[in-house]
Amino acid sequence: MSNELTNTNDAGTASDLVAPRSTHCYPPVLDACCSARMMWFDKQDSRAVYYDKRAEDFGMQKNGRVLTVSPDVQGCFTEMPFPDETFSLVAFDPPHMKGTEARLNGVMGRQYGLLFPGWEDVIAGGFRECFRVLKGNGVLIFKWCEVEIPLSKVLALTDQKPLFGNRSGKAMNTHWVTFIKCG
Ligand SMILES: C[S@@+](CC[C@H](N)C(=O)[O-])C[C@H]1O[C@@H](n2cnc3c(N)ncnc32)[C@H](O)[C@@H]1O
User: Fold this and answer.
1) 10-66 tens-digit pLDDT
2) For 100-149, what is each residue's pLDDT tens digit?
3) Which protein residues are within 6 Å of ligand 1, measured from CB?
4) Which domains does the chain have, with CATH numbers?
5) Residue of the nearest CA to atom 1 in ligand 1?
6) Which atom of ligand 1 lies nearest, measured to the CA of 78?
7) Which bin fits 81, alpha (ψ -120 to 50), beta or left (φ > 0)?
8) How far does the centroid of ligand 1 lie from the alpha carbon of residue 37, in Å?
9) Burial annotation 93-132 (CB, 10 A radius, 16+ → b, else e)
10) Cα angle at 132 between 140 and 149, to 5 degrees?
């Protein structure tokens, strides 16, 4: 379902979404790697464009629930098909766990994705693209679960300076970091 709209919203057709037309009115928010949109209060919120490199359904082993990854637009966050300065807010929640053989088909790997050798360049490219498509004074929310890779190592992959953040989760290891695009 690459480049196909899968929900009814105000965003128009997929080709409208990726057309680099300055007259096109995009929704104000981009979720740059949406997965199953677990963090969204309303998973069909029409104020956002949902982007991910994959589209698939998969069963969760414990409760049997099927999760759906169904982006409006499919592609890599290191090269997004949106014009410069399009969105007022970008959410960037990339994979945070290193890929191992055992994890390739595991639930966590399927839900959150995995990092492979060279991941630093991928995350750095993602930051660059997120800031490119962000409007001036737009806000980037970066989410990082610090289970294997320290937040400081990942923040070093962008030259943008974070404003402030918050920690969540039982072990308080999920960081929500806020940036603003100045200049
Ligand atoms: C941690 S999950 C996002 C979870 C999501 N915020 C939620 O609430 O469910 C990371 C997602 O990034 C996607 N991803 C990984 N590498 C990507 C890339 N290079 N471009 C676009 N999406 C990517 C994965 O497919 C995965 O769905």
Assistant:
1) 444 555 676 555 557 899 999 999 999 999 999 999 999 999 999 999 877 577 788
2) 888 888 888 888 999 999 999 999 999 999 999 999 999 999 999 999 99
3) 33-39, 52-54, 69, 76-78, 93-95, 112-113, 122
4) 14-180 (3.40.50.150)
5) 112
6) 19
7) alpha
8) 10
9) bbbbbeeeeeeeeeeebbebbbbeeebeebbbebbbbbbe
10) 55
Decide if 81 contacts 129 (C-beta within 8 A): no
Q: Measured in angstroms, how far is the CA atom of residue 113 from the centroid of ligand 1? A: 6
CB 157 within 8 A of CB 124: yes
Whether residue 11 contacts residue 30, with contact meaning beta carbons closer than 8 Å, is answered with no
Q: Is 35 exposed, middle or buried (0-12, 13-18, 19+ CB in 10 A)?
A: buried
If you measure from the C-alpha of residue 36 to the centroid of ligand 1, how many angstroms do you get, rounded to a whole number?
9
Amino acid at 87: F
**Which residue's CA is minimally distant from atom 2 of ligand 1?**
112
Among 33, 50, 73, 177, which residue has the most ligand 1 atoms within 8 Å of its CB, making it the best to mutate? 33
- Give the integer Cα–Cα distance in Å for 49 and 41: 15
Residue with tokens 């960081």: 175
Which pair of tokens denotes residue 35?
């997965």
Which residues partner with 111 through β-bridges?
A: none
* Structural contact between residues 179 and 160, judged by C-beta atoms closer than 8 angstroms: yes
